[in-house]
Structure formats: structure tokens, C-alpha cells
Amino acid sequence: MSPEKMEESFHLSLEAIQVLQNALETSYLDAYIETIENFIDQYRVRVIDGVPSEADAQRLEAIYKKLEQIPLTAEERRKLAQLLLLKGGKTEHLQPNHQLTPDSIGFLFVYLIEQLTPAKQQTKILDLSVGMGNLVLTLLLNLQLAQRDVQATGVDIDETLLSVAAATSEWTQAPLHLFHQDGLQELLIDPMDIAVSDLPVGYYPQDEKAASFLTSAPEGEGHSFAHHLLMEQAMNYVKEDG
């Protein structure tokens, strides 16, 4: 896609999000989720109890009609979503652990996975702190472009971030299964080939649960580091040769 088409898609999508944000009196991220869900639903405006208003709905329909005429590949949709979420991060305060993972890190992992896994074998990827999903979606969509058979499982305790990931993954038709739960609790998932994550840095408040991990803080020395526990937890769900 030409830079001009991406720019046009960005400005139209941003306008649609802002119209919904004002109409619904909601946050940017919630308006993003609603907008992407409308895109998935054949670019139709969802009106509930008269909201958005008829005028706003007509304005959105006009924007959606223009967007529908711009063909986007799955990876182009991911890049557009990334730009929209970066814009949202400038208008609404996001804590550091909620920031998007840069594409440079994602592309590095794409290269590493291509080098470390058999080309003709399915690869299952695990992300225990999936957040808004940019890292794992970068992996999935670019590995698919390289003709790789991939699937991923993502876990996160933050409902809003997970909803963002769910909307974007459905819009891009990425093979991503998501679970809303604490990544340090027991997971009902199959063993994975690879674990990746842009881990949140901080302390894990549940000392009793943390004590079951080898990487937990010594007794009496306060909370354990969540990122240490998540690394250990991820290895519990990776195959022996993963």
C-alpha cells in the first residue's frame, strides 16, 4: 500500500474513533474497540438506545463508506491499528506496562523464529502478557507472509487491553486464541513451541501463589518480581524441545 493510502486510512479511522468517543462519552480505547467491531460487522454503525445519534451515525456511515473502498491486507490492518493505538496513547495516559511493543522487536522475533523452527511444521506461540496484542500479531501475520503455519495463545488480566487485542486479531483474521486471566494461575492450554512476551515490570502481590515458583523472592523480603515469575511460568508451558 502507498503511504498516501495508509495516511488516508489513518485519518478516516481516527475521525471515526473520535466521533464515537464523543458520542458514547467513553475512552479512546473503548471507542477504538467499538470502531474495529463496526469494521468487522461489514462497516455498519451499531446504534443502541439512540446512541450514536442519527447525525453521528450518518457521519460515521460516510467515513466507513470511504474506508471500505480502501483495500488493506491483514498486515496493513495491523499497522493501521498500531498507528491508531499510538495516537490514543498520546491523548490518554497509558502506564508504561501498557505501551505497545515496537515493531523492531517483533520483526527481530520473526527472524529468530524463522531460524529456530522447521519451515514445514506448525509453530504454536505463547504470550502470557499479551496486552494490546501488537507483538504477537506482528509475529503471526509476518510469519504467515513467510508461508509459515502458526497459531498463538495470549493471556492477560486487563480486560480492556485484551478487548483491544481481540478486536484487532479478529479484524486481521489472525489465528490467536485469547484468555482473560492472571498469567501466573493455572492455564488450560496445550504445550507450546515458543514463548515470547513484552513482560510487565513490577511486583506480584499474591505472595502465597508466588511462593510456588523457584524465582520467587525469599521469605520475608517482600513481593516477588512479576516478570521473573512470568518467565518461569512460560517455561512450564513450553515443550521440552521448545
UniProtKB/TrEMBL annotation:
Q: Which UniProt keywords apply?
A: Methyltransferase, Transferase
Identify a single GO molecular function assigned to this protein.
Answer: methyltransferase activity
Q: Which domain of life is it from?
A: Bacteria
GO process terms (BP): methylation
Coiled-coil residue windows: none
> Which residue numbers delimit the YtxK-like N-terminal helical domain?
10-88
Protein name as annotated? Class I SAM-dependent methyltransferase
Q: Which organism is it from?
A: Streptococcus vestibularis
